[in-house]
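ok so I'm stuck.
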Amino acid sequence: MFASRQEILTTDLDKLKNSPVYILTSDYTFSAAELFRSALQGHKRATVVGEATGGGGHEIRPFKIAQGFTAFIPFNRHYHPVPKKSWEVVGIQPDIPCTAADALRVAQISILKELQKNPNYDTKLLII
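replied:
not stuck anymore, here's the structure
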């Protein structure tokens, strides 16, 4: 059925359950990426570093209309878990604000500070 072998690598998720997660964002972070980031941030599962997101909080569907035109109509609205408001247009604020260009460096500095405070800090971290 397949022309070639496909290998999918996975990891033991139990090892990552309590690992720190850092999400780097910019104003280009939009739509589904905002939903993902909002869920982790809202449940205190990730530290978000960078710029406010682009503000795409409504899911849209294309509807073809006359003469080759398509209308994109919102059909679903997402809310940030706390304070339960939409991020449409305004975006979601990061925990540690900085420019997108500096986000990785700022996240690394934050991790180093945590390591200084707590030498047992879980170093199996995830930067997204």
